UniProtKB/TrEMBL annotation:
Residues 7-67, 85-147 form the FF domain. This is FF domain-containing protein. It comes from Adineta steineri. It holds the Pfam family FF_PRPF40A. Signal peptide: none annotated. One of its GO terms (biological process) is mRNA cis splicing, via spliceosome. SMART domains: FF (SM00441). GO terms for molecular function: RNA binding. Keywords: Repeat. One of its GO terms (cellular component) is U2-type prespliceosome.
Amino acid sequence: DDAKNLKKRNVKALKDILINMSKVIYKTTWQEAQRLLLDNIEFVNDIELQNMDKEDALIVFEDHIRQLEKTHEDDIEIQKKHIRRTHRKNRETFLYFLDELHDQGKLHSMSLWTDLFNAISNDERFSKMLGQPGSTPLDLFKFYVEDLKARFHDEKKTIKEILKDKSFTIDVNSTIEEFVEIISTDKRTVSLDAGNIKLTFNSLMEKAQSKEKERLKDEVRKQKRLESNFKQLLKTKISSLNEQSKWEDIKIQIENDNDYQALPSEFDRI
């Protein structure tokens, strides 16, 4: 019993000494620990500890090291979590910054990194992102702009609905300022992206220009057809036409004919 009690006492005493020895860390070897113990006053002054069974002492040491290793690993994991949390927070804060730029109309679906780099790089929310793993500020910027671009078709549809409600049609003479003024009176535009608004205007203007181009082509074709019909009228109905013929005399003969009346002006007929 005495031996058992002594062993128990020595185990506890050595544990307490090791716990209080700051130089003993998770990677300290048994050889290093023994040298450190010889410099420890408590250990040196404890004769019974000096005579402790070496195998028992080694077991106590190994248990202590395992505990230190676990604590060290836990600390590393806590540190990693903290770093990951900081990095995540930096990304979130940077995205809030992009939201601010978007709300201010500075960032939109047509924005380029080069155009906004000066404004972005001077902000500390950009600086905090530098050097951390994962998405870079440029990556987040690109993702943000891509998300805005992905909204284009839905937002274009909304704008067209607003224009329909306002009974406003884009034609070749419409301006972007007029367009924005018209749609801005509708509360649905609050959430719309400035770039998508401009892209929608460009799209509608392109359509209007194409329509106008076709209209002009149709007018030219129609005019040519009318002129051709009128020439044919002159050929078929006026047999006595010659160089001495006067327009007034000819006009009397054909002015009631549909092909004559189809030409809108006297200038076109002469």
